[in-house]
User: Fold these one by one.
Assistant:
Number 1:
Amino acid sequence: MDMELEGIEGEAVGCHFTLESGKTLRMGGGEKGDPLFRDPTQPFRELTILDAGGALEFEEKRGLGVYVNDRYMSSGRLYPGDLILAGSSAFLVREISSDPHRAEMDEGGWSPLNGFPTFPVVEIPRLFHSAFREGPFLSCVMCSESLEGEIVEPYFIEKVYRGSEVVMECAICQSCVMGMGGEMSEESSDKIRDFSRENANRGSSLIHCGFCGNHRTHIREYNVFCGGVNRFAIPGSFCVLCEECVEGLQSLLSKKTQDVQKDFVDDHFPGVPADLGSPVPLFF
Ligand SMILES: [Zn+2]
Ligand SMILES: [Zn+2]
């Protein structure tokens, strides 16, 4: 299996680092060297990655560690679908496909026949898989429609983390999100729009909170979001929000909208404690 790292955020966005069997790839490192893992809020990282056949073995040479998906690690194995986050860069581990259809998809992004816009896509990173199923989400949590096959309707994934534990997760199709949005009070929609406009200066990121800009290293409790279509994810939609910002957003919602959210959680996540104190979900 040939593998590569694809930069999906930061300095290396769009770059591909191919792993050669038996050869060691070095990334990051000294101040004068490779700027890949540069970030004013973090010391430099330096990674070595070796293709060990079927998996990649990595080591963070300075002992500082990096995020792999939702865990902080100094060494270990990487498989296709894993995300590496360090400094201000994010990389996705990918299998290089010899399938021409897949190769075409990798080049041009997703462009179904019905006139949907083309946008870059990647295989859904493991971070956005269902922790419960240990694989991709298969259906919408509300209407139970399949998210696989020839489906072209976009959907959204949200997972709520407390440390490295997932306490809530779901995938929900666009129709259901729009349906819930219709139930939200006008007052709440206006406030959310204003809050987003004032705070969203970082845009979509897996490294920094999308609102306050705090580095992921300093965030223990957070929500991650991703847009998907079929078996692909849309990197431009990746987002992490820290719990404080999620609560800030939540506090703006009217009683009516909070009730809509509460009903949603009660209906679909009977196991989630009422005192989670987090707006789940934040799609609308
Ligand atoms: Zn649905
Ligand atoms: Zn924040």
Number 2:
Amino acid sequence: MEEKRRLTSLGAVRTWYDDYFRANGTWPTTADYAETILRLLDEPGAPQRRRLLDVACGGGYFLAHTPAEAFERFGVDLSGVAAAEAHCRTGLPIGVASAEALPFADGSIDVVVCLGSFEHFVDKEASCAEFLRVTRPGGRVLVLVPYDRHWIDTDPQPIELVGSPKEWSAWFRERGLRVDLTIDTDDLPVLAGASPRCTVLRMRVGRGRLRRTAHQVNRLLRFLGRSQ
Ligand SMILES: C[S@@+](CC[C@H](N)C(=O)[O-])C[C@H]1O[C@@H](n2cnc3c(N)ncnc32)[C@H](O)[C@@H]1O
């Protein structure tokens, strides 16, 4: 995997996004885009109305295109500018919060989605641990992440991590998530238009001992990261 890291603190990253969004606006996505992602989350036997959290929701386009009948929708973003726009677009209370410290109770979410954002987080260990903590046992996590190093050269965002589908799958598996679907966005025309050369990983949060162990390992990794 290859990383670009121009900023290191959450405060500096937040300021960067606020300034960028004030000057350029947030990145839009379409209803077709949301439908394509949501279709990947269809599953027989799922609760009738699932609690869905969009982590780093940007201007709220995905949430706006997610049907309220099927999903109770929640969103957070590090940038107050993006969160305010997402609130105007969706009418939902959008949290100004980092992925590294999600303001949700343990096991309170059925589906976490994180689209074109995980690669930009300051602390990916902490963010992944938060995904595992807030998602109920048996729930879903879906991420869309880049695999082409071209993103490092062309994307203005200050932090970027790129990896092959195999590398990303291994990264999440090692942290206790079960990857059950890996799709190249170039194979889905609707997604390719918005996010070329990315991978969608659909994952399940385990139940019982495996989940608890993953959670404990993540906490230990976070502790060790802080004490270095
Ligand atoms: C490329 S945008 C993607 C936004 C949205 N998910 C979409 O698909 O349009 C990346 C988003 O990540 C947010 N972000 C960056 N670092 C974050 C962090 N540590 N915690 C939460 N959000 C973060 C930014 O503010 C920005 O809105």
